[in-house]
Amino acid sequence: MRALGILLSLLSAPSLLSCTAPVEPLLEVSPEAPRLAPGQEVQLTVTRRFPGGGIDDATGRVHYASSNRELLGVTPTGRLVARAGTGDVLVQVTDPTTDASALVAVRVVATP
Q1: Any idea what the CATH number is for the domain that residue 67 is in?
Q2: Alpha helices (H) in 2-106, listed in sequence order
Q3: Structural domain includes residue 81
Q4: Does 16 reside within a domain?
Q5: Listed residue (29, 31, 20) closest to 101, CA to CA
Q6: Is residue 28 part of a domain?
Q7: Does residue 8 lie within any of the structural domains?
Q8: Could you tell me which residues come within 8 angstroms of residue 87 by beta carbon, excluding any fewer than 6 positions away?
Q9: Could you list the residue range(s) of the whole structural domain that residue 63 is in?
Q10: Is the Cβ–Cβ distance between 43 and 74 less than 8 Å?
């Protein structure tokens, strides 16, 4: 009976209980707002910043998706490839291990 009382007191201790949601890491993508002409390419770099101060290069571990694949292609490694045409495209970068995400606005222009 004494063990049950100790267990219950430990479970109700405020330092052991938390009602806050876990804080996800942030993704920082560079370059932040690239401008490309058709045929040009640029490599994105993704840095994952953790709440405790840790950072790591997540470029090869995140997923990339272009909002307009006819205008701007993106490889699985984060290389952007501008195709024919002009306009604005969003690239979504998602970390599958933490669900952290970031958006990059890319402008495809007629000439560099």
Answers
A1: 2.60.40.1080
A2: 2-11
A3: yes
A4: no
A5: 29
A6: yes
A7: no
A8: 68, 71, 107, 108
A9: 23-108
A10: no
Strands 101-108 and 35-36 turn out to be: parallel
Q: Please count the structural domains in the chain.
A: 1
Q: Which amino acid does the sequence have at 98? A: T
Tokens (6 digits) for 66: 């272009």
pLDDT tens per residue, range 41-78: 999 999 999 998 999 999 999 999 999 999 999 999 99
Q: How large is the average pLDDT for residues 83-109?
A: 96
Reported as a single tens digit per residue, the pLDDT across 14-41 is: 444 455 555 789 999 999 999 999 999 9
Which candidate, 5, 67, 19, 73, places its Cα nearest to that of 41?
Answer: 73
User: Which amino acid is present at 85?
Assistant: G
- 75 vs 67: CA distance, rounded Å: 13
Which pLDDT does position 22 carry in this prediction? 58
Query: Cβ distance 41 to 82 under 8 Å?
Result: yes
Average pLDDT over the chain reads 86
